[in-house]
Amino acid sequence: MSETAYRIEGATGPWEVVIGLEVHAQVTSNAKLFSGAATAFGAEPNAQVSLVDAAMPGMLPVPNKECIRQAVRTGMAIGATINRWSRFDRKNYFYADLPQGYQISQLYHPLVGEGAIEISLDDKDPVGAVKTIGIERIHVEQDAGKLMHDQHPTRSYVDLNRSGVALLEIVSRPDMRSPAEAGAYLRKLRAILRYVGSCDGNMEQGSMRADVNVSVRKPGEPFGTRTETKNVNSVRFVMAAIEGEARRQVDVLESGGTIVQETRLYDPDRNETRSMRSKEDAHDYRYFPDPDLLPLELEDAFLEECKASLPELPDAKRRRYEQELGLTPYVAGVLTADVEMARYFEANLAEAAARIGQPENAVAKAVANWLTSNAAGVTNALNIPVLQIPVSTNVAIIAMVSDGTLSGGMAKEVLEISLTTQDDPARIVEERGLKQTSDTGAIEAEIAKVLAANADKVADYRGGKDKLFGFFVGQTMKAMAGKANPAVVNDLLKKALDG
After folding, report:
1. Residue 326: which of 373, 375, 369, 357 has the closest Cα?
2. Contact status, residue 232 vs residue 210, Cβ threshold 8 Å
3. Is the same domain home to 223 and 133?
4. Residue 294 shares a structural domain with residue 328
5. Cα–Cα distance between 136 and 56 in angstroms, integer?
6. Same domain for 265 and 357?
7. Residue 193 CB contacts under 8 Å (≥ 6 apart), including other chains
8. Which residue segment(s) compose the domain that 473 sits in?
9. What end-to-end distance do the CA atoms of the chain give, in Å?
10. Of 298, 324, 418, 455, which residue is 20 to 30 A from 400 by alpha carbon distance?
């Protein structure tokens, strides 16, 4: 993947953008990092707060083993170093949503060290242009609470439901050079987290959000001063924030100004970033080892269990779909981009193979193409997700296409009717007379009429205008009300015209 593809043109020439992301992913766990309080989304404010979360005097934190396990499994999924010895630190600052006056994090000795993620920007060829984005570290930390502001200009409310929830902070290297690369990185990371089951990746609910570090430089020069745009909660907003902040920095530098290292916020309504506060360094937070928590020491058996529990990951699954099922890189990429889609495809594939009576690799292309093309087209028009189609509905239609009962176009019509009426596909076909015909006698009769009515075009075709063949196919299908088997029509037309 070329790093020269994206440039910001300024009055003094092109500028390169340097991007790093710090992604905060909420760990999938029923309890918080250091307390037994629940973590479910959508609870009433302050309904999920323990004495530990509220920082009541004398309350001591106890690490949640499941949160540590999920962090280790995530590190293993990106091929990262797992540190057998790690430690928690206190990050000291005062804010209304942080009752302890400090956040328990891992600055000096994180649980997970260096790893990497491969991304591609070419949807049509996901293996043709790959770039590796380095991961510097993954550390485990507790989330802060949330401030809610009412219309009164001086009044805010504190909700501590999120206080103490376990987060994975996944820190990338500054290896990205365009908004598109950052978007591809976030989508790939989210897919891995969902496959592993360590985070649900729901950015709209705040369970995954990104701090976006951006700087600009002239190509080949050292890195410039970076800014950090906090808590951006969608892939689209991350890409927009990068583009807007990079443009702002170029304008500042070309007008003779300097970039201030600061924390900024992204305003999606205005599509711009704005200054929040000066950017702190580590010494501003007075980090020191948390005296209430012993270091984490991981045993061999625990690491082996974590490794054994990992599922087939998206890249490996995509390669298997290509090599064993014969799918194209594009279709395999679409089916493996999200774990729910991959599971849905495999459920459809298993049932279709059993229904048709053929091995899975023999029907895989038909099932995959149906889900990613025909079915997707119908559900897009109905504004529903393709995963909402019952597996039994898909398989019934795929089987009828396989045995010649339905054409591709008729199959889409049957699916649309089934989704809007909740009726059985086989009943729809029977009651509405949607079966395609392979009756050669009936088709030959219509072909004869079409050729007789278009004698001039028949002469042109036989004179070398081969493209007219499509015209004759269309006229024949029209005469047969779309119910003729296209393969039979093509075969009989070719014989009639060439004869």
Report:
1. 369
2. yes
3. yes
4. no
5. 35
6. no
7. 25, 74, 199, 200, 201, 208
8. 440-498
9. 53
10. 324
Phi/psi zone of residue 429: left (φ > 0), alpha (ψ -120 to 50 degrees), beta? alpha
- Whether 237 and 381 map to the same domain: the answer is no
Q: Tens-of-pLDDT digits for all 499 residues of the chain?
A: 444 468 999 999 999 999 999 999 999 999 999 999 999 988 999 999 999 999 999 999 999 999 999 999 999 999 999 999 999 999 999 888 999 999 999 999 999 999 999 998 876 666 668 899 999 999 999 999 998 887 666 788 999 999 999 999 999 999 999 999 999 999 999 999 999 999 999 998 889 999 999 999 999 999 999 999 999 999 999 999 999 999 999 999 999 999 999 999 999 988 889 998 776 666 788 999 999 999 999 999 999 999 999 999 999 999 999 999 999 999 999 999 999 999 999 999 999 999 999 999 999 999 999 999 999 999 999 999 999 999 999 999 999 999 888 888 889 999 999 999 999 999 999 888 777 766 678 778 888 888 889 988 888 888 888 888 889 888 887 887 777 777 787 888 888 888 7
Task: Please tell me the distance from the alpha carbon of residue 269 to that of residue 249, in angstroms, as a whole number.
Answer: 20
Give me the number of domains the chain comprises.
3
Of the three residues 306, 332, 358, the one that is the final residue of a domain is 306
Contact by Cβ (8 Å): 205, 41: yes
Residue 273 half-sphere exposure toward CB, CA atoms < 13 A: 30
User: What are the two backbone dihedrals, phi and then psi, of residue 268, each rounded to the nearest 5 degrees?
Assistant: -70, -25
Report the distance separating Cα 302 and Cα 68, nearest Å: 10
Same-domain status, 83 and 181: yes
355 belongs to a structural domain: yes
Rounded to whole angstroms, the Cα distance separating 426 from 78 reads 46
pTM assigned to the model? 0.87
Question: Do 319 and 176 belong to one domain?
Answer: no
Helix (H, G, I), strand (E, B) or coil at 424: coil
**Burial of residue 433 (number of CB atoms within 10 Å: 0-12, 13-18, 19+):** exposed
Distance CA 450, CA 444 (A): 10
Question: Nearest to residue 346, comparing CAs of 310, 394, 383?
Answer: 394
Distance, in Å, from the CA atom of 373 to the CA atom of 363, rounded to the nearest integer, reads 15
Q: Report the C-alpha gap between 485 and 490 in whole angstroms.
A: 9
State which of 381, 414, 432 marks the end of a domain.
Answer: 432
CA angle 173, 300, 132 (to 5 degrees): 20
Nearest Cα to Cα of residue 439 among 480, 407, 475, 401: 480
Between CA 383 and CA 390, with CA 389 as vertex, the angle to 5 degrees is 160
2, part of any domain:
no
